[in-house]
Amino acid sequence: MKSNFQFPPIIKPLFLKTDHEHLKTVSMTPENLLNHSIPAQKCTLGCPILDASLNGGIPCNSITEIVAESGSGKTQICLQLSLCAQLPIPLGGLSASSLYLHTEFPFPLRRLNQLSHSFQSLYSHTFVNKEAKHNYNPCDNVYVQSIQSADQLLGIIPNIESFLLNSKAQLPIRLIVIDSVAALFRSEFENTPSDLKKRSSLFFKISGKLKALARRFNLAVVVTNQVMDFVGSGEEVNGVRIGNLSCLFTSGRRVCAALGLAWANCINSRLFLSRDEIENAIVNDSEANFMSRQTKRRLHVVFAPHLPYSSCEYVIRTEGVCGIDR
Fold it and tell me: What is the pTM of this model?
């Protein structure tokens, strides 16, 4: 893991090859936009079952949000994704390193190292041709930077662009993780009209710059968000239904994504992680009944321009986050 990296000055612009010529030959009608859309490259989550629920993984050129309560595994998925991005493209990776912006302390370095050891064991033959294989450490390709405010995040984006342009790393950065975006706005703004207006303005500025980076450098951008208890009546949040699910439930209570409708319009896709405690009866030879608790977690596609609704059960193990095919 590389922490507190220095952003170099801009040397020269970098232009990525895209299929703009193809778009120019197509009349821009809604039907043609659907039929002739450019498929986005995707990054595997390291599990074929999870990838199947997302039709291949996390897409590039867009912002994907993972929203969940604490303890659901959103940070663990982001850590795992940061390692899987290093995989070769034929294995579903991006052949790239990642930039992990964390807003809550401390950074889970111990868990990243634990996942890194499992990653190295699982893909030991994949990196066999790398120079100095015995010194290869996947954590070296995860750049970590702490962010303490929304203004700091907005101000650091030009520096990130310079870093992307001038990095001489063997694996270019093609994944940016912000964990979590809600923490940047949680205590900085009051519930007043002026503060809400300023907050919404920052939403659109930050997301607009992140989307521009994603398009220019073919990046996958992943942000985590928190949930809050739903207060009100009816199925909609503020009178508007957001996505495929009319209601979000976790730990036996109804919740909604933090930051409201304005932020929901800033992201391209939203994934919801739910968790529930299930009690199971255990009967032994003495006919005494015992109750055991089991945590069941599930990933849901709330909305995405390229996906219908789907869901998948998953578990968190020492070696990582794994989907369960039931």
Answer: 0.84
Comparing CA positions, the residue from 110, 116, 118, 165 lying closest to residue 141 is 116
Residue 166 near residue 11 (C-beta atoms within 8 A) = yes
- Of 37 and 251, which is predicted with more confidence? 251
Coil, helix or strand at residue 253: strand
Contacts made by residues 240-245, CB under 8 angstroms, sequence distance 24+? 242/270, 242/302, 242/303, 243/270, 243/302, 243/303, 244/300, 244/301, 244/302, 244/303, 244/308, 244/309, 245/272, 245/300, 245/302, 245/309
pLDDT of residue 3: 58
Q: Say if CB 229 and CB 258 are below 8 A apart.
A: no
176-194 pLDDT, tens digit each: 999 999 999 987 788 888 9
The model's confidence at residue 126, banded by pLDDT at 50, 70 and 90, is: confident
DSSP string, 231-251: -SSSSSBTTB--SS-S-EEET
302 contact partners, CB below 8 Å, separation of at least 6: 67, 242, 243, 244, 245, 248, 270, 271, 272
Instruction: Tell me the H-state helices in the chain.
Output: 20-24, 30-35, 48-53, 74-84, 109-122, 150-166, 182-185, 193-217, 260-264
| Tokens linked to 131 | 């120079």
Distance from C-alpha of 154 to C-alpha of 212, rounded to nearest angstrom: 13
Q: Is 307 exposed, middle or buried (0-12, 13-18, 19+ CB in 10 A)?
A: middle
